[in-house]
Each structure stands twice: as C-alpha cells, then as structure tokens.
Amino acid sequence: MLCCMPGVAFVPALLVSWSSAAFIISYVIAVLAGHVEPLVPYISDTGTKPPESGVFGFMINISALLAAITMYIRYLLIEKQNETSHFVRSSCNMFTLCIGLMGCTGMGIVATFQELAVPSVHDIGALVAFGSGVVYITLQSIISYKSCPRWNTYFVCHIRMAISVISCVAFIPMIVFASKISMTKIDWTPGEKVKSY
Questions:
Q1: d(C-alpha 18, C-alpha 58), whole Å
Q2: pTM, full prediction
Q3: In sequence order, what are the residues at sequence separation of 6 or more whose Cβ sits closer than 8 angstroms to the Cβ of residue 108?
Q4: Burial code of 53-79, b = ≥16 C-beta within 10 A, e = fewer?
Q5: Of residues 130, 132, 137, 135, the one with CA closest to residue 160
Q6: CA dihedral (167, 172, 177, 179) positive or negative
Q7: Could you give the maximum distance between any two Cα atoms of the chain, in Å?
Q8: Organism's domain of life (predicted)?
Q9: How far is CA 92 from the centre of its chain?
C-alpha cells in the first residue's frame, strides 16, 4: 500500500511548506504592488488583484491537491492499522476522508473565485473549506484516541484534540463576523461611506 512505502512522510511536509509559501509569496507581491496594507491583511485580500491573484490561485490549488493526497495517505494508514486492531469502523474512516476532500474542494473554490470577483462563491468555498477542515481534524482526533495506545501516544492525541478545540473556537467568530460584513472593495479612501448590507 502507498501508506507503507518509505518516504511518504514528505507529502504532509510538502503541503505545509507549499501552503506557507503560497500565502507568503502572494502577500509579498500584494504589498509590493500596493494592493494591500502590510499590517495583517485577510489571506483572500492578498490574492484578489493581478498579478498576485494568479500566483495565489495556482499555489492554493496545488495545496488543495497536496491536502487531498495527504488525507488519502492517512485514510490508507488507518485502514492498514485497522486490519490488526479493529479500532474504528471502515465506514467512519471513509466518512472522515470524504469530509476532508470536501474541504479540499472548498480550497479549490477559494483559489479559483477571487474574493471581489465572485464574492458569494468565494465565501461558500471558504465556509466549506474551513468548516470541513474543523470537522475533519476533530474526527481525526477521535480516531487517534481510539487507536491508543498501540498506534498513538496519548500526548499526540491530546495535542491533536487541542488543535481541534482551538479550530472550533476560532470557527465560530469567523462565521459571526463574516456574516456581519459584505466586502465590495479592498481600497477605501478617507471619508468614503461604507455600504452596509
């Protein structure tokens, strides 16, 4: 199986490195072009205008593909471990994979439909990406606990669950505040009135 081949651990490492580079490169281009302020812009703001939008879209789509590969490897790994331990139902593992792949699809939507070009589609993609991501990591945390102590340490499980809890807590205000605003442009001039929808 693919998950038992030596060296597949580079895929998650590549995912993290590539995704970080996508955010950093598009941020640098957007700041240098004067499209965003350098102090903590939204990630989507750094991928709205050309040329950074092309870089952002391309790199985030590659990130979505790498995330899907990583999730599939994790699925195969759990299936292989489950052959001897029977710690989780195969249907639960498949369901978790499907939720994760939904999140990857959401990432692809975010990358393809820029924030200001098609805001409703972009927002739906972001909701699917972040929402599915939170559910995926929570389910993976539960699976990790079920596989203890043979396949995981409790310390690793506690770290995974802490990340899941932080993600859940962060997701709630994201939804609340995102529903309160409607962005129609990034650049504002002093004295300009803001439309509230």
A1: 11
A2: 0.86
A3: 60, 61, 64, 125
A4: bebbbebbbbbbebbbbbbbbbbbbbb
A5: 137
A6: positive
A7: 67
A8: Eukaryota
A9: 21
Report how far Cα 140 is from the mean position of its chain's Cα atoms: 15
Q: Is residue 100 a contact partner of residue 72, using CB atoms and an 8 Å limit?
A: no
Q: Which amino acid is at 16?
A: V
Torsion of CA 169, 163, 18, 53, to 10 degrees: 0
User: What is the C-alpha radius of gyration for the chain, rounded to an integer number of angstroms?
Assistant: 19
3-state secondary structure of 37: coil
Closest by CA position to 117, among listed 27, 179, 57, 181: 57
For residues 162 and 23, what is the distance between their CA atoms, to the nearest angstrom?
24
Domain spans, the chain: 9-184
SS3 sequence of 117-183: CCHHHHHHHHHHHHHHHHHHHHHHHHHHHHCCCCCCCHHHHHHHHHHHHHHHHHHHHHHHHHHHCCC
Residue 35 structure tokens: 């499209």
